[in-house]
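Quick sanity check, RNA-directed DNA polymerase:
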Amino acid sequence: MVHSSPLKAYWTFFLQTLWELDFAVMSVLKVNFHKSLLVGVNIPQNWLEEAANILYYKIGSTPFKYLGLSIGANPNRKDT
């Protein structure tokens, strides 16, 4: 599914604003979209790429670090 540029810009603004408002209201914090990653689990790669393009996120993969902890890593390995 390909979005035209104005429609993509509208939906990007709408989704980011909605997410930021909900998150900010509930936590009194703001989302830093430039540091955000989109990590897909059991979804098609093309869907993940399209969602990342619409939201202007980078695509991440597991394992990744969150607050210094390895998310998605094998806890039985020493190097995680």
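Posting the structure with no commentary besides this: DSSP finds two helices and four strands in the chain.
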